[in-house]
């Protein structure tokens, strides 16, 4: 059943800066299957946006990607593309929805034209046909009275409507992969739900794959099929949504889940993860999370943990899963989740 | 839009009235009198004062001036007798305006090109070189450039005539260039920073994510957005250039309005001073009005308010 449309293998991204080399992405590998939504979650600075920009070939000029990194998409390694070949991929095969709809549309261009642009570029439609198609797309993303608004400028629209326009732009050329980098963070909660629903519905129609970036596990549950948890430029745990939510194994995932409000969390029991992420100019030896981890073992500051397999779909990089490690008791909230996991397993059996 | 323009025109007339009033009374504070030729006898001076209405109480002079000015009569020059101020300005302003317009066009176009080149090559050699050039352009006054150009291209390598006006276009080349350098430098810097901002904006990122080439991104999105703020800069710059540069006109012996303004001050040629000041103020306000209208045309955010 798994049919990866994109394979990321051993991705490293370094940035040359005056202060030294920032190791923003440190050996990230993952697959994206046809038609699935993969969520990448992690705190600010964990490398989520750098990952997405790398997938679009839009990294800052000071980025250096070592040769053994591979981004395999349709039998080609994206990292070997020329700028011209990239232009064929961008907006056509892989498209992106940006975070802030207030700033991501050109304030001096009519919205209809902005939606038509990728069509003119990739499908070589005439301006007239492209605008006709733009109108359909506007209707498709739920813009009311689209005919009257095709010649509007962005400042005439609300944030939610603008994000719909940004989605229409991304979908214009019918891409195989849609990357959404925190697409709803800038919107208020009700609009957020509308936009997420819209994305799900559109995905069903087109069977495209989505990489959904967020620092908020709360929105992941209803959106994603699988989740990858990122910390300090690495993926530390990945699995299906249920596995990550109800059988989390990495203490960092525990921390993220504990800092997420749910319907049954007692007021005041929410806890942010103490401490700050490491300096990526000089990532620490061993597990980068060790200094913030109250379960840390002696080995953690010396050697990096490998991925331990929990199930065919679920892996976590923490020494706690090593058979020699002492058994630890996770926080109460996580124990509750584990109990729920037992229930779910029981139901399935 | 029409309503907006009418409102602005009304404001313009009111401002003009304030300028006239302020200049009129400030001139009275200037020491000395217009008729200080030692050959003039006191009787002759009294006669002249009478002829020009300078013997009347100040408020009457002011009212007379105001009424006449709004009828389009700015009086006659003290210095060049029997020449009306309107005629004097009418002869000289077009010369200055042509020179200024040439300098403006050359300067702005050069600035747009250099600014964009600088921004697109941010922090490399081209940018560095253009940075030095524009810093020099801003800090060296145009009359010094005028003298340098005059020496280099007028005497050392005599490519262009060194003085005069109206006999051939080539006479205007050196003064145009001398005047164009400062605006070119100012526009370069401005366009550079606006363009750098535009190129790192989210909408340009999105344009790139659509698969547009860098050239399309710049031409379709970055340029237009960085042009809008530049327009506001060009208005006052145009007014300054079109009203003539005193020093450049003197260096190249160009019979423009700047040259005449200077000679009217020590001779206390009140009507000429007044007339020229009014023209300057009017030009400035008209240019600002025009840029505001242009901004409204290219910037949809302003247009629809
Ligand atoms: N051009 C650059 N030069 C140097 N360092 C960079 C550059 N771009 C990103 N970084 C660094 O890479 C790391 C990862 O950044 P990234 O933007 O991917 O974080 P993120 O996970 O998207 O965070 P957020 O939730 O805040 O968006 C950060 O430490 C950041 O400072
Ligand atoms: S490897 Fe060690 S430091 Fe890292 S998460 Fe596991 S226990 Fe904590
Ligand atoms: Mg980010």
TrEMBL record, chain A:
InterPro entries: AAA+_ATPase, ABC_Ni/Peptide_Import, ABC_transporter-like_ATP-bd, Oligopep_ABC_C, P-loop_NTPase
SUPFAM superfamilies listed in its UniProt record: P-loop containing nucleoside triphosphate hydrolases
Membrane topology of this protein: Peripheral membrane protein
Coiled-coil region list: none
Residue intervals of the ABC transporter domain: 6-257
SMART domains the record matches: AAA
BP terms from Gene Ontology: peptide transport
Family: Belongs to the ABC transporter superfamily.
Name listed for the protein in its UniProt record: ABC transporter ATP-binding protein
Provenance organism: Leuconostoc falkenbergense
From TrEMBL, chain B:
Record's bilayer topology term: Multi-pass membrane protein
Protein name: ABC transporter permease
Keyword field contains Ribosomal protein: no
Membrane-spanning parts: 9-30, 95-117, 129-153, 173-191, 230-252, 272-298
Compartment annotation: Cell membrane
Pfam families: BPD_transp_1, BPD_transp_1_N
Major site of localization recorded for this protein: membrane
Record domain ABC transmembrane type-1: where: 93-295
Source superkingdom: Bacteria
GO biological process entries: transmembrane transport
UniProt xrefs under SUPFAM superfamilies: MetI-like
Record family assignment: Belongs to the binding-protein-dependent transport system permease family.
Entries under InterPro entries matching the protein: BPD_transp_1_N, MetI-like, MetI-like_sf
Recorded GO CC terms: plasma membrane
UniProt keyword terms in alphabetical order: Cell membrane, Membrane, Transmembrane, Transmembrane helix, Transport
């Amino acid at each position: 059943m798994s049919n990866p449309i994109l394979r990321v293998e051993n991705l490293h991204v370094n940035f040359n800066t005056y202060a030294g080399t920032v190791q923003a992405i440190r050996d990230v590998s993952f697959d994206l299957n046809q038609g699935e939504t993969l969520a990448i979650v992690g705190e600010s600075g964990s490398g989520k946006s750098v990952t997405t920009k790398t997938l679009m070939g839009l990294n800052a000029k000071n980025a250096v990607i070592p040769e053994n990194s591979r981004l395999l998409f349709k039998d080609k390694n994206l990292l070997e593309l020329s700028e011209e070949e990239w232009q064929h991929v961008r907006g056509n095969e892989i498209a992106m929805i940006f975070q802030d709809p207030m700033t991501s549309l050109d304030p001096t261009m009519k919205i209809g034209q902005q939606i038509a642009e990728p069509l003119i570029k990739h499908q070589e439609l005439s301006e007239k046909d492209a605008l006709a198609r733009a109108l359909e797309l506007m209707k498709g993303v739920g813009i009311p009275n689209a005919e009257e608004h095709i010649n509007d400028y962005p400042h005439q629209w609300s944030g939610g409507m603008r994000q719909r326009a940004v989605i229409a732009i991304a979908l214009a050329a019918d891409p195989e992969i849609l990357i959404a980098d925190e697409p709803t963070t800038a919107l208020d909660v009700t609009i957020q739900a509308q936009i997420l629903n819209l994305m799900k519905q559109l995905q069903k129609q087109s069977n495209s794959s989505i990489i959904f970036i967020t620092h908020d596990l709360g929105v992941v549950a209803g959106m994603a099929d699988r989740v990858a948890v990122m910390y300090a430029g690495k993926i530390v745990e990945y699995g299906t949504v249920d596995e990550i939510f109800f059988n989390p194994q990495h203490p960092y995932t525990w921390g993220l889940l504990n800092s997420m409000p749910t319907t049954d969390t007692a007021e005041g029991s929410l806890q942010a993860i103490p401490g700050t992420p490491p300096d990526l100019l000089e990532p620490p030896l061993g597990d980068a999370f060790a200094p913030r981890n109250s379960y840390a073992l002696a080995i953690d500051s010396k050697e990096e943990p490998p991925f331990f397999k929990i199930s065919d779909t679920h892996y976590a990089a923490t020494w706690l899963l090593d058979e020699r490690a002492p058994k630890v008791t996770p926080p109460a909230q996580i124990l509750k989740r584990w109990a729920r996991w037992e229930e779910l397993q029981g139901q399935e059996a | 839009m029409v309503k907006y323009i009418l409102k602005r025109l009304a404001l313009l007339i009111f401002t003009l009235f304030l300028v006239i009033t302020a200049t009129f009374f400030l001139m009275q504070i200037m020491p000395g009198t217009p008729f200080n030729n030692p050959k003039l006898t006191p009787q002759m001076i009294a006669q002249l004062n009478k002829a020009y209405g300078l013997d009347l109480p100040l408020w009457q002079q002011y009212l007379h001036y105001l009424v006449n000015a709004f009828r389009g009569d700015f009086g006659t020059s003290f210095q060049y007798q029997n020449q009306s101020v309107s005629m004097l300005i009418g002869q000289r302003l077009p010369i200055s305006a042509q020179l200024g317009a040439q300098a403006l066009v050359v300067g702005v176009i050069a600035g747009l090109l250099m600014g964009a080149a600088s921004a697109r090559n941010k922090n490399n050699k081209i940018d560095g070189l253009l940075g030095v050039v524009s810093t020099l352009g801003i800090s060296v006054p145009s009359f010094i450039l005028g003298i340098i150009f005059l020496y280099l291209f007028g005497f050392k390598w005599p490519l262009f005539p060194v003085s005069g006006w109206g006999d051939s276009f080539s006479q205007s080349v050196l003064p145009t260039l001398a005047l164009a350098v400062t605006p070119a430098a100012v526009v370069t810097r401005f366009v550079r920073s606006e363009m750098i901002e535009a190129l790192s904006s989210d909408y340009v990122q999105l344009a790139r994510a659509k698969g547009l080439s860098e050239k399309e991104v710049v031409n379709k999105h970055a340029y237009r957005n960085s042009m809008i703020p530049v327009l506001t800069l060009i208005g006052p710059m145009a007014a300054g250039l079109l009203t003539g540069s005193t020093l450049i006109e003197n260096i190249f012996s160009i019979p423009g309005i700047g040259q005449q303004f200077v000679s009217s001050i020590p001779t206390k040629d009140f009507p000429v001073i007044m007339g020229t000041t009014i023209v300057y103020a009017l030009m400035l306000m008209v240019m600002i009005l025009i840029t505001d209208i242009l901004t409204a045309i290219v910037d949809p955010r302003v247009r629809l308010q």
